[in-house]
Amino acid sequence: MTALQTLARFVVDLAARPLPAEVAHGAQRAVIDWFASVYPGLDRPAVQRLEQVLADDLDRGPCRLIDKGTGRAATVRAAALYNGTAAHAAELDDSFRDAMVHPGAPTIAGALAVAQASAASGPAFLRAVVLGCELSTRIGVVMGRPHYRYWHNTGTMGSFGAAAAAASLMALDQDATANALAMAATFTAGLQQAFRSESMAKPLHAGRGAEAGVLAAQLAARGMRSSLDMLEGETGLGRAMSDGPDWSAIGATLGEDFHVTRLTFKNHVGCGHTFAAIDGALALQQQHGFRHGEIESLHLGVYRSALDIAPHVDPRDADQAKFSLHYMVATALVHGSVRLAAFEPARLNDLATRALMSRTTKALDPEVDAAFPGRRGARIRIRLRDGRVLERLQPDRKGDPELPLSDADLEGKLLELAGPSIGEPAARALIERIWALHEAPTVATLL
Predict the structure, then answer these.
(1) 137 by DSSP, 3-state: which?
(2) pTM of the prediction?
C-alpha cells in the first residue's frame, strides 16, 4: 500500500470505533482554542476583504460563517475558506511542534463546514477533528525541516487535515478517501515568503487549506481519482517539496499515539517562535525583580526558524510586530504580557519598549537549534545596569505539552478573546456546548 492508502485505511477504521475519552477530550480542547482564535481574527483586514470577495457564495448554502451575530449563510467551501482564514488571522491558533504546523485552523474549519452541511453528530465532528489533526501532523513530521525551509506547513499540510476530516464526515470508503488525500496533495500550497515582509495574506494559507481539503473530498465522492503515490512518488510531494523522505513508518503508531492530545495552545498573541524567549525573559524578571529600565542589554539565543520567521528589528505595524523577536520580548518585559493590546498603535510606538528593543540582540544558539522542532526553546541573557548578568535556558513554552494550558486556561482564553465580540454570556454558553459535543446529536447545536 502507498502511504496515502495506509492513512486512508486509518480514516475508515476509526469510524468503526468510538474515540478514547482522552482523545475526544483533546479534540474538544482544540475546538475551544479554535473558537478563541476565530473571533479576534474577524477584525483582521484579510478576513474583511475575503468576505467582500466571497459575496456571491454568501447568504445562501447550508453553512454559517463565524461572526459577531447569528452567522451569515454560506456554501460549504466558502465557509471552510472564510472560517479557516479567520482562525489563523490573529496568530492565536494551536500548533503541533514536530510537524511545524497549525493543524486546527484548516482542519476544524473544513470539518465544521461539512458537518453543518450534513447535520453530523457531535461525536462524528470530533472524530473528524482528530483525523484531520492526525494526518496533517504525521505528513508534516515526515516532510521535516527541509519542507519548512520554504513552505508554510499550515497551508501545505492543512489541505490533508481538511480532506481527512471531510472524507470521514462524508463516510467515504477507503479508496475514495485515498483519492481525496491524493488530490489534497496536488492542491497543497503556501510559501513562507508570504509573511517575511508583508503578512496580510498569511492567514489565507489556512483558509485555502481548509477549502482545498473539502473540495478534494467532494470530488472524490463523485468518483474523481488521482495518483495514490503522491507522497513517495518520483515526482511526488516528498521529492518536490522536501528531501525525498522515507514514508515507510507513516502508519507506525496510528491509533496508539494521538497527536491531538499533544497540541500546543498559545499563551501569548503573535508568532509562536518568539514565545520561549518571552517566557524565559519574564521568568527572569519575576525571579530577580528588576524593571525594564534597569536592563543594560538583552540577548536572545534562538533556533534558525525563529530568526527567519520573526526577523523584524524595527517593525512598522502590528503584523510585523507579531513577527519581531525584538518587539515581542521587549513589550513583554515592559508591560508584563503580550495580549491583543500589545498591537494597538500606542503600544507599538511605546518609547520604553522601543528603547529596550534598541538594547536587544539575537543570534543562533546551536544547542537550542539542535532541539528544534521537537523543542522550541530560547536562551536569554540579561545584563543589568548594576553589573549583574542573568541567564536562563527556556526549553519549552507555556502551552507546550510539557507546560500545558489547563482546561480552565483554555476557557479563559475563549472568554477573553470571544467575549468582546459576542458577550461573556454567549461565550460561556459556547464553551458549554463544546464540552457537550461528545454526546450532541447534531453539530448544529454548536452555533
Answers:
(1) helix
(2) 0.94
